[in-house]
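Narrative progress, year one. The postdoctoral researcher (J.K.) led the effort to move from monomer predictions toward full complexes, under supervision of the PI. The following entry was the first complex the group processed end to end, covering 485 residues in total.
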Amino acid sequence: MSPSGAELLRQVKSRIQEVDPAEVNELIGEGVTIVDVRGSEEFATGHLPGAKSVPRGHLEARIEGAAPDRSAELILYCQSGARSAYAARTLQEDLGYEHVRSMTGGITLWKDRGYEVDVPRALSAEQRDRYSRHLLIPEIGAEGQQKLLDAKVLLLGAGGLGSPTALYLAAAGVGTLGIVDDDVVDLSNLQRQVIHSTQRIGIPKVDSAEESIHALNPDVNVVKYQTRVDASNIMEIIEGYDVIVDGVDNFPTRYLLNDATVRLRIPVVSASILGFDGQLSVFKPYEGPCYRCLFREPPPAELAPSCGANGVLGVLPGTMGLLQATEVVKLILGIGDPAIGRLLLYDALGATLTEVKVHRDPQCPICSRDPHDITDDEMGVFPDYEAFCAAAG
Amino acid sequence: MATIKIPPVLRASVGGEKEVGASGADVGEVLRDLAVSHPATASQLFSAEGELNRYVNVYLNDEDVRVLDGLATKVGDSDTLVILPAMAGGCR
């Protein structure tokens, strides 16, 4: 005779290990993976601190994303301890997890005992639909999506690099996008600057970009700065942003941006392009090298041609801009290995991506010092600065 | 003979090649051999005093020679030197 539901649960519980909420409470924050096997809507109403969501219906397919190491300690829970018991049996008997336990009494008993519950701010039904592919990834989920929605990213330039970066960050739900650009849309931009359009030739790039961003995702708050950054306005513009995307077209602004972001400890995702070649690195002040550690001084103007003068493959800023967007998302979410201390070199013609190491320079004129000691007058200055700017016109 | 990867801004000085071979026991010798074979690179790599220009980074394989022994860093035949000046282009 087939067992009743209650009998089956008793049998399953006799074959798995259970753990009391008191012990789980001691393990919070100790590196033990805790997985909530309830449905994603139940998870959104409140969960154990740091728990990952893997609904039981997707357990076999998604558990490896949340718990890749089968020999590591793993705790499952649900509402009352039944679903997590079945899930524990599956992981133990079918998938070979060696140290999996189910929390007795589920989150109901956890709450009765008065332990802490994280209640994520709820995404709206539309947001859950819009960002559903993010919510499915354990590394992002509702919590990560909320981080993206709360994030403030500043794009320096709405040109070749800024166009794809802005579009994809907007699509990903980065809540605030600041855009600095004093230019207007020109026909010659449209070979690569995909955020603009033929109908918008002649209008300011910040307005054109805002229109495309809002058409794609009305969640995004666009802050427009129709200006060029210089020493007089940079600190005011960049303060309060979480990450800055550097796609500027000249060295003085790159050095200025570096010095200001080191002072304010804001990470910069930097890329540059020319012809068929691109470079990318992430400069996170005081955790890795800064732009000056990598390039102590700019080359003379004749060795620093611009895309305007030498041309660029239209697709290339798309490639490099999207690598930048990816690094921005990683920094916001705190996942993966951002390109800190590494310079990625992309050769489009050769279809190769290589990297070289970048070290902090102990003699760096900027980041070897306390940020409070860096003065306004020093920002953006490098040897022969006046001559460089005169030669560059 | 070591391989030198040539950055876009220097390719015109080496006949358009992306990679060229050069001989020498250390980084300085290899770069000077390059400058002899392709004289147009000399002023771009070296200052009038014969020092490597400060705006040029050189990597032995993936490591910055500044954290190795600079121009005195030993180079083997199977090694690759990467010459890398800064690029500013963001494209407006």
